[in-house]
Every structure is written in C-alpha cells, then in structure tokens.
Amino acid sequence: MTTTSKVSWTHQYIHANGIQFHYVTEGSGPLMLLLHGFPECWYSWRHQISQFSKNYKVVAIDMRGYGKTDRPKGKKNYTIDVLVEDVKGLVAALGYKKCVLVGHDWGAIVAWYAAMNSESCVDSYVEKLIVMNVPHPQCYMDNLNFNQVLRSWYIWMFQLPVLPELYLKSNDFKWITNQFKSAVNPEAFSETDFNAYKDNAAQPGALTAMINYYRNLPAEMMKREIRPIIQVPTLMLWGEKDQYTSKNSIRGTEKYVKNLELKFLPDCSHWTQQDCPKEVNQHMHEFLV
Predict the structure, then answer these.
(1) Residue 2 reports pLDDT greater than 90
(2) Under a CB-based contact definition with an 8 Å cutoff, are residues 197 and 174 in contact?
(3) Which of 5, 10, 267, 273 is most buried by its number of CB atoms within 10 A?
(4) Would you say residue 56 lies in a domain?
C-alpha cells in the first residue's frame, strides 16, 4: 500500500477473534480504538492518530478483510456479531479492559453495536463512544424513506454475486476513488490518498471481503429486537453534505442514546474526519476532556 506514514507511527500485528489484524499505533495511556469505513482502511485516520497520541494509545486498525488484516472467506465471517467480537477481542488482546471507541461509516455501525452489546456486560469495554456520519441502526430504520433508499442504491447492488466486484475493479478502480471526490474541501484528498485506497481495494480478495459486509446488512437491518439504550457518553459528528445518508436519518437518536452530544458540520461531506479534520479533532478534544 502506498502511504506516507509518520516516523512516530508504528505498524504492528495482533491476533484477536481467530484472525490476525494489522494496525497503526502511536502514544501511550488509555486506549483509543479507531474503526474505519468503506472503502477505506486505517489510513482514513491519518489526521487523528498523532493528534490524540499525547493522551491515548491510539490504535487505527485495518478491519477484517481490509488492508493487511486477514480475509477469511465466506460472508458468514462478516456479520455484525463477528465484527463486534473483533472489537471486544482487540481491546483484550491489546491488554485493556476499556477503550474510547471511534468509528466512521462501517466502523460507526460496528461501534454502535459494540456499545449496545457491551451495555449488557457488568464491565463495559466501551468507555466513551464517538461515531461519524452513520445513524444509530434503530434510528435509521425508524426514519427510512424512499429518498434514503435511493441514496443507498449501492447497498442493493452489492447483494448481487460477482458483478459488484467487477464493477468496482473496472477502469482502474475508478468507482472507489470517485467516492472521495464528493469531499467539500478540495484539498481533503491528494493523489497519494486516492492511491492508498485504490491499493487497499486491489489486494487479492479484498473487494469480496469488503462487499460481504454489505451482503449481510439487509438481514441485520430487518432485525427488530429491542436493544438496550446506550448509556456511555456518546459524541455524534455529522457532515451535513453527506451524499449517502440524509440528516433525517438521525432524527430521534436521543431515544436510543441517553448521554448524547450531537455536532453538525455544515461544510463537510460523508468523509467526516478527512474532509474537516480540524473541526473533527476539536470536537473530539472537547468531548474527551
């Protein structure tokens, strides 16, 4: 993968939940675990790793199937339950009992479920939660409408076999790199950044693993069981120029999150922490004090 890593960043590997994870880390102290989205990798947190390493051991992982992390075959290995167990296993494998859990896009989906699941434990492993541009899963379903279905067209395309992989691979992974061009800040992504994500998607088996997250999603979305109210302090950051998920989808979040701070970023796209890193870092700092 073509990236520009800082000297102070360390690339390491660790086993958790039956597979080997690659991660980038800096700092010491309490654990801050960063979960990226689709079609990204640990590199999406390049503006946050050093910023928070002064007070935390910051760990930005390649989620299962991405980057240099293992890619087990079969969509059964990419269900929400498995992904949540990854988080729980990583916290323990890194030698911690708790973490500040930060997620964007798919990482935010997993973070929501991890916070919900850990609420039922005597010792919650999520101490604070920060999510970006993905609504609480139940809130998403409560507010689902035709407009949102249209915005999420790719989810339904990803249910097909083989075709999505061929489509994403075509024209030198043009669809992948084009997604980041929706950023509001014209300087948010460089050619180096585009190449990092293209190289990530080009790894053998990576596209199928990444799309398998989505192939499990409809079944997860249809589950209507009552889930526990999230009790841990939660910060939601929302880029208002998100082309994939409407602002309407977060209406009523306070019903499912007891201790919620919601901050809107008016001139920010879906790529929250990369499009507006200065504002994101400031909101995170204020929340974590």
Answers:
(1) no
(2) no
(3) 273
(4) yes
